[in-house]
Amino acid sequence: MAAPPALYYKPPLPFTGAICGGMRDGLIVVISGSVLQSCCRFQINFQCGSGQVPQTEVAFHFNPRFDEGGCVVCNSFERGKWQQEERTYEMPFCPGQAFEIRILVTYSSFLVAVNGKHFLEFKHRIPLCRVDTINVSGDLSVASISFQGPP
Ligand code: 9QG
């Protein structure tokens, strides 16, 4: 089977793709794009397989919401339901503006930086070895999704 690409260029949304090289400590996933002017929400999911919720489990759901006063909801979807939310009442994204999200995967957590600044940490709830797919959807456009870091 061919290896998944290290770069997805201008993927149409909703997008589901394999994580190049699989999840491992030191992997950096870079998502460049723009928030739509009319944005309510968008989401980035690191998930187990390419099915849709609720058929698949989501290890990390990153969900900026403009329709709730500007917050970012993080969660996992396990055993058929959404689990405990971790909310940040800070909004690093602006409708109509470009962004770069860098997600560093470590043995213990996802570390998210937005536009070059650390934003939040989400500790693993699902073992990394079960996570193999990235999914992006909602009110944004994506210029590229790339994977950097250890082979
Ligand atoms: O609302 O919250 C995160 O805790 C749910 C949302 C859900 C998640 C979840 O409906 O939305 O954000 O797949 C979904 O339904 C996502 C997009 C309690």
Q: Could you characterize what this model shows?
A:
This protein is mostly beta strands. Helices cover 0% and strands 53% of the residues. It has no helices and 13 strands. Strands 2, 4, 5, 6, 7, 8 and 12 form a 7-stranded antiparallel beta sheet that branches. The chain has a 6-stranded antiparallel beta sheet with strand order 1-13-3-9-10-11, with no helix packed on it. The mean pLDDT is 96. Bound molecules: methyl 3-O-[(1R)-1-carboxyethyl]-beta-D-galactopyranoside. Methyl 3-O-[(1R)-1-carboxyethyl]-beta-D-galactopyranoside (9QG) binds next to strand 5 and strand 6.
What fraction of residues sit in β-strands?
over 45%
Termini separation comes to 17 Å
Specify the biggest β-sheet.
Answer: 7 strands, antiparallel
Distinct small-molecule ligands in the complex: methyl 3-O-[(1R)-1-carboxyethyl]-beta-D-galactopyranoside
Gross geometry = globular
What is the share of helical residues?
Answer: under 10%
SS class: mainly beta
Question: What is the chain-wise order of helices and strands?
Answer: EEEEEEEEEEEEE
Indicate the radius of gyration in whole angstroms.
14 Å
Q: Care to count the β-strands?
A: 13
Number of helices: 0
Mean pLDDT: 96
